[in-house]
Amino acid sequence: MLRDFDPAHEGRMQLTGESMLALNLSSYNYLGFAESELDLRDDVIRTLRQSGASACSSRSELGTCSEHLELEALVADFIGKEAAMVIGMGFASNSAVLPALVNAGDLVLSDELNHRSIVDGARLSQATVRVFRHNCARSLQRELRMAIARGQPRTRRPWRKIVVLTEGLFSMEGAICNLAAISAVCKRYRAYLYVDEAHSIGALGRTGRGVREHCGVEAEDVDVFMGTFTKVSMYLS
């Protein structure tokens, strides 16, 4: 049932008594997988009875269970990587993992329209952060050439490593990453490539493997993939 909102913004609404087919853009269920006939409740109940609802400990101590390891192996196999790590929150996957990957003496080149979690992670890392024009391989190439030629500020020493950050499907404005061109530039200048596929895994590609598959890029041409179970893949899983 469609609802009419009060134009005076007083918080009232009324049912129109009409219905229509529409594209759902009000939630992450934009492909409608949440309405699947697949019922996983029995599996969930069985796992809860077997393993409980919480490990009551962090993964680095006693919180890793067989289900974690099985899930990580399945994710790694699906993505085409040697290993995967499951983290409890998508935002934290970027904001907490990036500071573990880069530090002082490293250079981060970030797309100017990257998600806030990527921006926060890059800033927290203590690495030098520069931006390149949105989805522009030429701009990225210019930044890489200047960075390699000039080295670190003041010391002019070579960067310890250079990491390029981009999204697969940009969540704020819907553009698909020009991943073939971006990855080619990274390979040419020996920069690491980190791709946030939170909105593209499960939604793009012939078999749902994201923008990498959609653009015909090999898994080994991207160093780190980030994804999430709170978007399309939650319903697929």
Can you describe this structure?
- The protein has 237 residues and is of the alpha/beta class.
- The chain has a domain at 82-236: Aspartate Aminotransferase, domain 2, CATH 3.40.640.
- It is built from 8 helices and 7 strands, in the order ββαααβαβαβαβαβα.
- The strands form 2 sheets. It has a 5-stranded parallel beta sheet with strand order 4-3-5-6-7, with helices on both faces.
- β6 (192-196), α7 and β7 (224-226) form a beta-alpha-beta unit.
- The longest helix is centred in the N-terminal third of the chain and has 14 residues, at 66-79.
- It starts with a strand and ends with a helix.
- The mean pLDDT is 87.
Brief overview, please?
The longest helix is centred in the N-terminal third of the chain and has 14 residues, at 66-79. It is built from eight helices and seven strands.
Q: Which properties best describe this structure?
A:
five-stranded parallel beta sheet; two-stranded antiparallel sheet; Aspartate Aminotransferase, domain 2; alpha/beta
Which oligomeric form is depicted? single chain
Low-confidence stretches are none
Task: Report the structural category.
Answer: alpha/beta
CATH C-level label of the domain at 82-236: Alpha Beta
Say how many strands there are. Answer: 7
Per CATH, the architecture of the domain at 82-236 is: 3-Layer(aba) Sandwich
Element order: H for helix, E for strand = EEHHHEHEHEHEHEH
